[in-house]
Specification:
This is DUF3025 domain-containing protein. The chain contains twelve helices and six strands. By secondary structure, it is α/β, with parallel strands linked by helices. The chain is globular. The model has no long low-confidence stretch (mean pLDDT 94).
């Protein structure tokens, strides 16, 4: 199963250190996740040690998020979707913990019904399909973000492509998004959360920069919560350097790089 993943792809840079820490041999990963979680001291929002358990440990009729919040146990199936979920727990544990706290609080307040509700829906979208866009604070970065939000794809992703890597960095978060990118398609689109940061953050080494993002976004979620309007769409293979032949015609494909609705 895991042999399907091409770890040389740039979109897996975010979680590659977590994979290397696991030291996997074969397709089994729950034990490796638990060893890593213990060494990192991972906890849920109630302060309980985080453990990965087989899906069968989830009692019938109990919501997944509610169970994690109450027990610290993450039900995990033997598939790529849950493998990437475990990797994100190892990479951004504070964000995952705060998302679970938001989801568990919504379930406690409203119960588990056919409709998740706006806040829980936004948290689920974030958990499954988010990318984090780190942008150096300043007029150039804000102009690029405005162009992304306005779906001015050619201006943001082609004309300003030199900014990516130096002034703008993309970190994948959503585990379903990572799973989809095992078989990349041009139409795959992330729900992107923009994070403006100063020169001091961009000067950090990569591991420290990820830790800063983890703490910053978790704190933002705790203070401000989350709504679906928080996200900016981003076709992932449009990130400069993430796919071949990114010429002007690539970004003029309106079946993927769609104009903003009036």
């Amino acid at each position: 199963m895991l042999s399907q993943i091409d770890w040389t792809r740039p979109w897996y840079d975010t979680v590659r250190p977590g994979v290397e820490r696991l030291g996997l041999a074969g397709d089994g990963f729950i034990d490796a996740f638990n060893r890593s979680a213990a060494s990192l001291g991972l906890l849920n929002h109630a302060g309980l040690p985080l453990r990965f358990v087989p899906q069968a440990a989830l009692p019938e009729g109990t919501a997944y998020e509610e169970f994690i919040g109450a027990t610290g146990q993450v039900p995990t199936r033997d598939n790529l979707h849950d493998f990437f979920n475990g990797l994100v727990w190892q990479t951004f544990p504070r964000i995952k913990r705060q998302l679970n706290a938001l989801q568990a609080a919504q379930i406690a307040q409203a119960g588990v019904g056919k409709s998740r509700g706006a806040a829980r829906d936004a948290a689920t979208i974030f958990d499954e399909n988010a990318a984090l866009l780190l942008v150096r604070a300043g007029s150039a970065g804000r102009a690029l973000v405005d162009e992304l939000r306005g779906h001015c794809w050619l201006a943001a992703l082609y004309e300003k492509r030199a900014m990516f890597g130096l002034e703008v960095q993309v970190f994948l978060f959503g585990h379903a998004l990572m799973e989809k990118l095992v078989a990349p398609r041009k139409a795959i689109t992330a729900h992107t959360l923009v994070i403006f940061a100063g020169d001091d953050v961009f000067a950090l080494e990569p591991g420290a920069r990820r830790a800063w993002i983890d703490e910053h976004v978790a704190r933002q979620l705790a203070l401000e919560g989350l709504t679906t309007s928080s996200f900016t769409p981003l076709p992932v293979l449009g990130v400069p350097g993430w796919w071949a032949d990114q010429d002007q015609d690539f970004y003029l494909d309106t079946t993927v790089f769609r104009p903003k609705r009036a």
